[in-house]
Amino acid sequence: MKPQLERMLEMQQYYVAGDHSAVKLCHWLKEKLTSGRSCYKEKFYGIDCHRCLQMTPAVNQCNQKCLFCWRFQGLNELHFKKYDEPEFILDTLIEGQRKLLTGFKGNPKCSLEMYEEARNPNQVAISLSGEPTLYPELGSFIELCHKRGMTTFLVTNGTLPEALEELDPLPTQLYVSLDAPNEEIYKRLCVPMAKSASWDSVMETLNILPSLDTRTVIRHTLVKGYNLGYEKEYAALIDVADPDFVEPKGYVFVGYSRNRMTIDNMPSHNEIREFSQELADRTGLRILGEQRASRVVVMGKDREKLRIR
User: Fold this and answer.
1) Single pTM value for the model
2) What b/e string do you get for 140-175 counting C-beta neighbours within 10 Å, with b at 16 or more?
3) Which domain holds residue 149?
4) Percentage of the residues of the chain whose pLDDT score is greater than 70
């Protein structure tokens, strides 16, 4: 990793491990420790958000430059020149999370019991930054997490269907970000940087999704003025992917996306709710939950299958 990038990440309160991995304390982890408020993933799926390790094995490797992405894209890499082993990444990032948590031990708003639980994560969110399916040892990393009793949520942009077909084991829950209803908007909003990151590749991922033996979620990050609306087109794509759940979520005006977007591109929760209801009507899904603070809705067929814990 270039020293310039590492310094930048550390200033943004990332803990960097090796050449390409990082962890960062989620806003909702901090909220859970100090106020008891939890993230929508806890509300929807039952994970303990204060025990979640929000990390990436590909902090600077990505084949898209999405306009709504919060991360710095000026030093973007498409490939790994070398890569670290899964055990090193997991052990180092857990230790990194413990260091980032240090100040909470003396916070009177944080119970010692919850602090100790946060130091020992049981859920790994493989997202944060970059495209994790570019990491060659992703399957081994997920296997290691599962052997240690951790659940795993993997978020991918869906441009590497072959990586998903070969992934063994699969994560506890697989998110595919479907942030455009058609190829034209995909190219304009997601800005693919490699030939492999084509709309056809995303479509191939949607086609194989029903065959993957794990919980699947289609995630829409909705940006006002770009991809909000188009419910008919999204519904047709959801019919192909046949996911367990669909998460329409509003874009948030944060990080480096502020150089490319305006605050007017942030939809309200009511707009996300209206989009979700229209999409539900077109797909036969039901709205199973929502969290206004995160501008997110979850849709599916069966509320009983929503929670993993």
Assistant:
1) 0.96
2) ebbebbbeeebbbbbbbbbbbbebbeebeebbbbbb
3) 3-305
4) 100
